[in-house]
Amino acid sequence: MKNLFILGLIAIVIASCSTTGNGELIGVQNRPIWNPTDPYGMVFVPQGSFNMGPGDQDVPYAHVTHHKTVSVAAFYIDETEITNNEYRQFVTWVRDSIARIILGENGIEGYELIEEDEYGNFIDPPNIDWNRPIRWEDAEVREVLEDEMYLPEHERFYSRRQFDTRKYNYRYEDVDIVRASSRANKAKGKEDRSIFIEKPEINIFPDTLVWTSDYTYSYNDPLSRNYFHHPAFDDYPVVGVSWKQAVAFSKWRTHILDNYLNDREEPLHDEFRLPSESEWEYAARGGYDLAPYPWGGPYTTNDAGCFLANFKPRRGNYTADGGLRTVKVASYNPNNFGLYDMAGNVAEWTSNAYDESAFNFAHDMNFDFYYDAEDSDPEILKRKVIRGGSWKDISHFIQVGTRDYEFQDTAKSYIGFRNVISFIGRDKADFR
């Protein structure tokens, strides 16, 4: 008994010496070291303030944008719009996930689902073993997947066996922080946090028919057939993606990077997301305050008369700038932040709801107007701000201060997107 007491006393002394720092306040020791690295294909934009709004006259007298000095925290942003091939990685991942789950549920050898974690806790939905490739041409695999993943025979064209993209549904989980932090919910005291966890499920395949449906009496059928599928368009900006699909892509991209960093036991970045309206404009300006275009000048051509973006420069003449419709990303020079196509090519979704008077009441720090179910008109939720203008727009719409919107469930041949990540910390200089 005496020996046990002595051993316990020694353990207490050792524990005390190892955690108290000789009685000084030293913080928790052996914490992971955070050395921020730029995510692949993204550009760092330092914190700063700028004059948000048009740098020129309000040509249509719409009165939906005003000058407002705002400050923005540091963030990363994609140097180009998300391309067809990048979005195809998302589509392929969803397709393969669905196939592996179906095969696992049907007991096909090699595709067993991981339903428990290392501690024996039940996982729902189960994890997938990605180490073994899918044997698409294996007779047993074909039989199991035939009805679940392929078009029924009566819908096939020339009897071609093709995937049914209507089944490409992606489910993710999210926390409604705005709702959880509202005054009403705070006043209620402790809540079951599950009421703030959302589990949306959305079909993520782009609408390839936008090239035809967006226009009347215009022959764009070759693009409807080929734009998302053909390797010739791999480096073109993805279009036909709704705001909800762009959000789902952002959640998936976060999931993929987090899994990689977790496996390496490294600290995580913040989540990928759509840029707020203020982040987008700040990045588009590239440090030029009050200039109407990302390149700083008031003109859409350089000294040699060459156009500086892909837009509609003349009545009925879409090709004067070198492009008839979309062009490859990074076909024009970047702005001072190193960002391509912040004007023209395709307009871009932002995270914000569109309200004509948002400049009057949104905060001047990280300007961000979103939908509040308790205070806002539900119709506002459906309208999302798009920025940057596109290949079909005249020069007014490619100005950095011009605002426009589309409904969140719509997909267009002239709207794409890019992602941002909030920088964790103040500035890169703090970690050198």
Topology:
Blueprint lengths: L1 H18 L22 E4 L2 E5 L15 E5 L2 E4 L5 H22 L8 E3 L5 E6 L11 H11 L19 E3 L2 E2 L1 H4 L2 H5 L9 E2 L2 E3 L6 H4 L7 H6 L16 H21 L13 H9 L61 E7 L4 H4 L16 H5 E5 L16 E4 L7 E2 L3 E3 L10
Parallel strand pairs: 11-14
Antiparallel strand pairs: 1-4, 2-3, 4-15, 5-6, 7-10, 8-9, 11-12, 12-13
Helix pairs in contact: 2-3
Structural summary, described in words:
By secondary structure, the protein is an alpha+beta fold. It has a domain of 197 residues: paralog of FGE (formylglycine-generating enzyme) (Alpha-Beta Complex). Helix content is 25%, strand content 13%. The protein is built from eleven helices and 15 strands. The protein has a four-stranded mixed beta sheet. A hairpin with a 5-residue loop joins strand 5 and strand 6. Helix 2 crosses helix 3. 31% of the residues are buried.
N-to-C SSE string, H for helix and E for strand: HEEEEHEEHEEHHEEHHHHEHHEEEE
Structural class: alpha+beta
End-to-end CA span: 54 Å
Q: Strand order within the widest sheet?
A: 13-12-11-14
